[in-house]
Amino acid sequence: MTFTQARTKCNQYGSYLSYPRNDDDGIKLRGLLNEGRHASWIGADDIEKEGTWRNVKGEDLTYLPWSAGQPDNMRNQDCAWLGINRNTMKWDDRDCGNQLNYAVCHKSKITEGIKITSRK
Ligand SMILES: [Ca+2]
Ligand SMILES: [Ca+2]
User: For residues 106 and 44, is the Cβ–Cβ distance under 8 A?
Assistant: First the structure.
């Protein structure tokens, strides 16, 4: 699924595409994503304004644990994902139209997140 499809799916669950708010959230997400083996979209993008990363609610993000050398905006990458480094779960920006198999929708606690999958 693309970033937009992931976001829409979460909205259909009455939820939103989750994004880690701190290192602790990152560790919990890593657990949900099979110890980081499952590459997943996270709810952060700079679609509206290049270089300004916002969550899916349109709020500016302050917690932005990028992987080394990221975000590089290569060929205009505007959406964040987890999985470039399965150990640290640091972020990378990538093409919003790429197909990823996983996304995590937020619930009351990130540990209760709904993991949605789409395999082709
Ligand atoms: Ca960008
Ligand atoms: Ca990138």
Answer: no
